Amino acid sequence: MKLAVLRHSMTGRRAAQMITGALTGSALAGGLIVVAGRDHPLASLPFDLLGVGFALWTAGWLLGPALFGGGDETLRPEHFSLLSFTPRRLAAGLAGAAFVGVAPLVTLVAFSALVVVAAKAGLGAAATAVGVLAAVLQLVMCVLASRLVTAVLGQVMRSKAGAALAALVSAVILAGLHSSWVLSPLAQAALRTGFPDPFSTWIAALPSGWGLVAVRAAGHGQWPTVAAALTGLAALGVVCWYGWAALLKRRLTTRRASGRPARVASGAWAKGPMTAVAARELRTWSRDLLRFHYLVFALCYALAFCLLPLAIDAPIFLPWTGAVFALWVAAISANLYGEDGTELWGKMMIPDAARHDVRGRQLAWLLVTAPPTLVLTAAMVVFTGEFDLWPWLAALVPALLGGGAGVTVLVSVLRPVPLADPHRRGGNLLENGTDFAQVLLVLILTAATAAPAYFAVRLGPVWAGPVTGLVGGAAMAWLLGRLAATRLESSAPELLLHLRTGVSPKRRRPAPALDRGRPHLPKPDLGLEKLGLDLAPTGRRAYVIASLTLCWVPLVAQGIVPALMLTTGQITRSWFLALHLPQHLQWPTVIAMIALGLVLLTTGLGIGLYYLAKSRRDGIEPDGGP
Prior knowledge:
The chain is mainly α. The chain contains 25 helices and no strands. α2 packs antiparallel against α3 (45-68) and α19 (390-414) packs across α20 (436-449). Mean pLDDT is 76; it is low at 256-266, 507-531 and 619-626.
């Protein structure tokens, strides 16, 4: 069944995604094999590097669902709920199907580095044979552990504590990826002198390093250690399978509510339509697991991203923690109307409700975002003693808050992503996908609204920046909110149709209906799916994927970060190209990098959105179906 599904889905966008993922994974796997096969002056270095690589690869299997959705659901357990399968038998069948696909195959290639390092190090035929067995057992452990973690998260995320925990995990992972430059000095030192002994011990103690332990022990004739390591991998796989089987039974036989009933809050302060909407939105932010998860994610990401550079004694980002938090709250608020679903019909029946609804949402967003932003900013400035940054913070923070309040409602009206109605959603947040193109768009637009305040601080007197930031933020909130309200009033029926059916109003052909006359509501896409690239030529499709993937390197890592260092005077050279050049070339290099990143970003988004509009104009869904 899995092979048949994969065979019939290898068309258009899905085929491009699968091929791109296979090529990317194969390149990373090839890197591990190269590390295993190269000569190193330190005999233990290849094993340590492979231990780090295997740990990161295993972490991708375990924590990927927390970032990108509920894992591989090609065959869902619900498809077999009416068959006379015991939970263990169903788990055995689904476990077998889990090993069918591109990801397990690429992972097996990556773990074959165990065989290469055994042969290269001259540990003998026995160690090579142990490497083959260890690679297979490690693959089994990874796949089954991934299924177990996905099932556990599906159960845990039905509560606020679970939603917060998942947000913490995904925020730390994403912030770590965005702060990978912090590891550059540490990695360079490790390649010269080797990893510290405690670090090597911890890497080997992780389950991802047990295969390496078995190979090294086989080369030295330590067969009890070999048996213990391989048995540990096999036992861990069996435990994961049993746990997954138990959670499958729970998934098919029980259905928990998504969160506990919340106490009704007093709405005495709501004296008019706008404040009533704001009160409703505040209750939604506190009760809806999806919004609560996003809000905790924004806070954890801001803290992790700004605290990680302390590992190399670089507190440069700490005063900007509040600004980073405000940016990410704006990004995760990009789909306010899509999250509410068909509740929009109620507003259509009330005269002048659109304007009050938009303004109320803006007020609630500011009440949720502004206090933590100001507290984080003030606390981090006091903690670091960087009081000289007050003109920048006083200018950019109000601009970002006002811009975020306007951009979120405008993008939510212009580009909503249909979701199931809140009362129809399951408690598992992993089933609710995230449209990263929408998140990216709001991040860019919100940051752009702070441009006048930035140039006012850079070019004008001291008072010009704070005044420009405050006035500009208020103007952006009012103007963009007005545009959103006008758009909502003029296109509410079309927007409701889009939220109810998932079909653009500009399409020429109606969407196919499901059973009982219910229209088709697609699950939100993860990433580039919404860009409608099926109509694009292969070269342009590859350019869009490559540009949106790589634009962050010149824009943020080689542009914005060194610009911030040059502005504040807290310079850490690390891998920043501009900071290694003569002083008179530093700012031109930073500007060139930012320009290159913006060119890649805007051209990639422009081409993608062009073909999205073309697909809708021609009556074609982004996945290629009518």
